[in-house]
Specification:
Elements (H helix, E strand, L loop, with lengths): L1 H8 L34 E2 L1 H6 L5 E4 L9 H7 L6 E2 L2 H4 L16 H10 L7 E5 L7 H10 L3 E5 L35 H4 L5 E4 L3 H4 L17 E2 L15 H10 L8 E4 L6 H10 L6 E2 L3 H5 L11
Parallel strand pairs: 1-5, 2-3, 2-4, 4-5, 6-7, 6-8, 8-9
Length: 308
């Protein structure tokens, strides 16, 4: 799997602002501070990193679409060489409900079973990608890192790869990844997200934040007091992560200097993970994920909503 990426990565222009090993971290912020048992592993890597670590990681395709289009069909039509497919609805989400939101975290054993079926082991390094600049892949990466595994987003995802795609599903031997509980220290519930004292960050696009439109949830707007840092604006036009100095400027403009004070949310706890991983990349510390997000909050009719 990684051999194909290794050879073809030599033809890909180097992303000069991206990181490989932690020692090459760039930007105006402090060094990356990853508060897991794998403190030496960055949350973003590029194809150059993949090329230099041939055979030492598992590549995971996490494509998923809010409009209901099939990520599996997209994978079958063409995926990066050697990649396994991870179904977000089946393995990265629990049952949807008004009380829990559209994509709550699954039971830890369900998640672990999905990883084992994909051939992922406890000791593996997982590099996840999508066709959306990593904002979907962020969910898998956050879940793995939150439970102490080595995982990162492939910077640029599908768009960064110009080689021939594979159409045959990749197969790996059954993995041994075990279930671990979701850490309370990295999660916020609806009560905490709607209380004063924390910086609540909305990762949705600006039109959904300000209430101009919401195609999927019953009330438009945002949690009162929240600031808007659209996760897709963390990327340049090619879908790669912006240079660290520009990312610091974006978060600083929203009044954020420390990730440890942040509660991140989006529609349903998927793309909100991208903002958390970017803050970790910048060395700003680790915030909390409000998994239920707007899909849960908008249905809590006793709670107020802000627009514009």
């Amino acid at each position: 799997m990684a051999r194909e990426l290794s050879a073809l990565s030599q033809r890909i222009p180097r992303a000069s602002h991206m990181v490989g090993p932690l020692s090459r971290h760039v930007g105006s912020g402090p060094r990356l501070k990853v508060m897991t048992e794998h403190s030496d592993f960055p949350p973003f890597v590029d194809l150059d990193w993949c090329g230099s670590h041939s055979g030492k990681f598992v590549l995971a395709d996490t494509r998923w679409y809010l409009d209901g289009s099939s990520g599996r069909d997209a994978y079958n039509a063409g995926h990066l060489p050697g990649a396994v497919f991870i179904d977000l609805d089946r393995w990265l989400s629990g049952p949807a409900s008004e009380e829990a939101g559209r994509n709550p975290l699954p039971d830890p054993e369900v998640f672990a079973r999905g990883m084992r079926e994909a051939g992922i082991n406890n000791a593996d390094t997982i590099i996840a990608y999508d066709d959306a600049g990593g904002v979907i892949a962020a969910r898998l990466v956050w879940m793995l890192r939150a439970t102490g595994r080595r995982a990162a987003i492939l910077d640029g995802g599908m768009a960064s790869y110009f080689g021939e795609l594979e159409c045959q599903p990749s197969s790996r031997p059954q993995g041994d990844l075990g279930a671990r509980p979701w850490p309370d220290s990295l999660l916020a519930d609806i009560s905490e997200a709607s209380s004063a004292g924390r910086t609540v960050v909305d990762a949705r696009n600006r039109d959904r934040f300000d209430g101009s439109q919401d195609p999927i949830d019953p009330r438009p707007g945002h949690i009162p007091g929240a600031v808007n840092v659209p996760c897709r604006e963390n990327l340049d036009p090619s879908g790669r992560l912006l240079p660290a100095a520009q990312l610091w400027e974006k978060f600083g403009h929203a009044g954020i200097s420390s990730g440890e004070d942040v509660i991140s949310y989006c529609g349903s706890g998927v793309t909100a993970c991208h903002n958390l991983l970017v803050l970790e990349f910048l060395g700003a510390g680790r915030g909390k994920l409000f998994v239920g997000g707007w899909s849960q909050y908008a249905r809590a009719l006793n709670l107020p909503v802000e627009t514009a």
